[in-house]
Amino acid sequence: MPDAADTAGLNIDYPGGELTVRMTGAWLNTTISDIDTQMKELERTQLSGAARIDISGITKLDTAGAWLIRRLLTALQSGRGDISVSEARPGMSELIAALPEALPVPQEHTNKPSLFVRIFEPIGATVAGLWVDAINSMHIIGSAVRGAQLKLGRGSGLSPASVFTQLENMGVNAVPIIALMSFLIGAIIAQQGAFQLRYFGAEVFVVDLVGILQLREIGVLLTAIMVAGRSGSAITAEIGSMKMREEIDALQVMGLNPVGVLVLPRLVALVIALPLLSVVANFAALGGAAVVANIYSGITYEVFLSRLQQAIDMSTVVSGLLKAPFMAIIIGVVAAVEGMKVGGSAESLGRHVTGSVVRAIFVVILVDGLFAMFYAAIDF
Q: Alpha-carbon distance 274 to 323, whole Å?
């Protein structure tokens, strides 16, 4: 049997026509369930005369118990003129008085936005967000161009150690996955091209197909997409984590330029690494195409190299590599902008990392299409 001091008690009496409510024991969240029904019946009772609430017998009180008392007082005060409350233990009266007389009633949103608003409001928000992102991107680029200084006003220059560290992370460590992916892509293009050209007796032209397509378009585009997913997400996660831990604010307090310290070394490393990775991807893709052409179509390696020399020229190689620095800047800037927008939660970090990869890949593909139209316009 539980001790009486550990249970909530409620005694109701009417001496001389006056309502007297005596509360005893522990009025806690775990003990008031048994008397909640009595309290609700008491609140609905309509009696004339004064009322007296005796809470001197309460030994323990928490917010749940105080709310029952506050609710009873509100109900009695609405129908009676004279309500007296006995003295309580220290702190109990303050807790009861601090509670509101009634819980706020949630308002029903009856006015739904019109169909026009529901359709065009997300479009407007997206356009406004793109404009803000464009301004932030210009800020990142301008801060990088303004000066590579790490210390504002002191011109300490760009740290080579930071650039080489980022080169190792973004370039050297990415070589295996880039080479493997490009080898498989080149092999697939060669196999499918040879399969279709076989009907025309022109399987040897698969070398032209793979060489031109890989060197002009596929090589740098797929490499940029892989770098955006691998290195772009890492940049956003690193800068976003620093933003969450207020390390970027600490850099500004110290007088350091966050763009010079965090963003610029990564931009420089990307501009150097992406063209080199594109060269690796091109060699790997051509190697994969040569192997498949030899096995599937019987084209020897000597014939493959001879035909490749006839099919491509320097403009084919240069037209692809010219895109790489622009794509590298796009990936770095988009990743940095999304990293700077991270809030204080892990959900925000994940959302912006995902947004960084998606936006970088979209802009990279868009820029590749613009380059293709530009090359066609100048017959390059």
A: 10
Report residue 302 as tokens. 């000597």
H-assigned helices in the chain: 36-44, 63-79, 92-98, 115-146, 160-170, 175-197, 206-213, 219-227, 233-244, 247-253, 258, 264-297, 301-311, 314-321, 323-340, 346-377
**33-49 per-position pLDDT tens digit:** 878 778 887 777 665 66
| Helix 219-227, helix 264-297: angle, nearest 10 | 130
Nearest 5 degrees, angle CA 24-CA 28-CA 32? 70
- CA–CA separation, 23 and 92 (whole Å): 13
What are the φ and ψ backbone dihedral angles of 8, each rounded to 5 degrees? -95, 130
What is the percentage of the chain residues whose pLDDT exceeds 90?
27
Pairwise CA distance, residues 230 & 233, whole Å:
6
Residues 6+ apart with CB under 8 A from 234: 169, 170
Q: Which whole-number Å values give the CA distances from 83 to 66, 68, 78, in the listed order?
A: 17, 16, 10
Report the DSSP beta bridge partners of residue 11.
Answer: 22
**CA 146, CA 257: separation in Å to the nearest integer?**
11
Q: What is the spatial distance between Cα 229 and Cα 247, in angstroms, rounded to a whole number?
A: 25
Residue 302 has phi, psi (to 5 degrees) of -65, -45
The most distant pair of C-alpha atoms in the chain lies apart, rounded to whole Å, by 118
Predicted TM-score of the model (pTM):
0.68
Separation CA 82–CA 76 (nearest Å): 9
- The Cα 275–Cα 329 span in angstroms is 12
